Amino acid sequence: MNYLAHLHLGGPGREDRLGSLYGDFVKGSPDAWPAGIAAGIRLHRRIDVYTDEHPQVAQAKARLPATRRRVSGLLVDVFFDHCLARLWHDYAEQSLPSFVADCYRTLLDEPELPPRLARIAPVMARQDWLGSYRDFAVLERVVEGMARRLSRPELLAGAFAELEAAYDGLLDDFLRFYPQLQAFAAAERAAARLNG
């Protein structure tokens, strides 16, 4: 899953949200961080493993051409964040604009972000990365940005058009998968509270 889903699944607290994002920006043991952030990083990693191993996600990846095998996970993650933003009202009580504003405030108020996250957090907030995913056309720019960061950008050439062609099937995959992922994340958070 991508940033919006991790923030949604990670829990409502400040440390929950920070840990939900840090999972993409820190390597190794999370124990150097405060306990709540470390728990969020661990949850982020468990969500990633659950997602990567889930048959519905495998089906979603298979909807893309075989030539996308190496990047299909990235593309499905981004597409699923689009689905979550588009259908937010089905999965959350707080409005999407309010939720993302809270997330940006948490990030921008945090003085000790991991270096790479510290560099992108102001851009993320200014360009409303999280809320803009509602608009499918935004994914074209997202895919182009991902391509620029790859050592082989050609792996993503034409990928947006393929997401567009597979839209209905990928949306169906999301609708089947996301409630299961929500249940998994809630159970993991509950287990962490009991063991914490």
TrEMBL record:
Pfam families with a match to the protein in the record: ACP_PD
EC number(s) stated in the UniProt entry for this protein: 3.1.4.14
Taxonomy, superkingdom: Bacteria
InterPro entries in UniProt: ACP_PD (IPR007431)
GO molecular function, one term: [acyl-carrier-protein] phosphodiesterase activity
Keyword match Lipid metabolism: yes
A biological-process GO annotation: fatty acid biosynthetic process
Keywords carried by this UniProt record: Fatty acid biosynthesis, Fatty acid metabolism, Hydrolase, Lipid biosynthesis, Lipid metabolism
Presence of keyword Transcription regulation: no
Protein name: Acyl carrier protein phosphodiesterase
